[in-house]
Amino acid sequence: MGAHCSLALRKRGDGVVGIDSFNSYYDPSLKKARRTLLGSHGVFVVEGDINDGRLLAKLFDVVPFTHVIHLAAQAGVRYAMENPAAYVHSNVVGLVSLLKACKDADP
């Protein structure tokens, strides 16, 4: 979700939309509390996955993005060793999905 980055961008006056899958790698209740905090500061957080091409296409159709900051990742080296497919799906395929959405957007 990039809560600190999102708050800093809002503080400087930028509009911010975040995407988070709210998976269980970190406590989802902590993430939802952060979403509430961010919402109170004008940050809109979408529950979804950056691998969801339809969701990304819809967001890019609705929101006139000027910049994209990619902070989504499956953290943890140990997790990557135990679950390499999930790690690649989140960190590599997710990046490619987001880059494709950026490329396909009509600025």
Would you write up a description of this structure?
This protein is mostly helical and 107 residues long. The protein contains 5 helices and 2 strands; from the N terminus they run αβαβααα. Helix 3 runs parallel beside helix 5 (84-104). It is globular. The two termini are 24 Å apart. The mean pLDDT is 91. Belongs to the NAD(P)-dependent epimerase/dehydratase family. Residues 2-105 form the NAD(P)-binding domain. Keywords: Isomerase, NAD. This is UDP-glucuronate 4-epimerase 1.
Could you write a compact summary of the structure shown?
The chain has 107 residues and is mainly α.
Total number of beta strands: 2
Q: Give the strand content.
A: 5-15%
Structural class: mainly alpha
Give the helix tally: 5
Can you say what the CATH homologous superfamily is?
A: NAD(P)-binding Rossmann-like Domain
Low-confidence stretches: none
Shape type: globular
- Alpha carbon gap, first and last residue: 24 Å
Q: Characterize the main sheet.
A: 2 strands, parallel
CATH class: Alpha Beta
Instruction: Kindly report the spatial arrangement of strands forming the biggest sheet.
Output: 1-2
GO molecular function: isomerase activity
Pfam family, one: GDP_Man_Dehyd
Protein name: UDP-glucuronate 4-epimerase 1
Family: Belongs to the NAD(P)-dependent epimerase/dehydratase family.
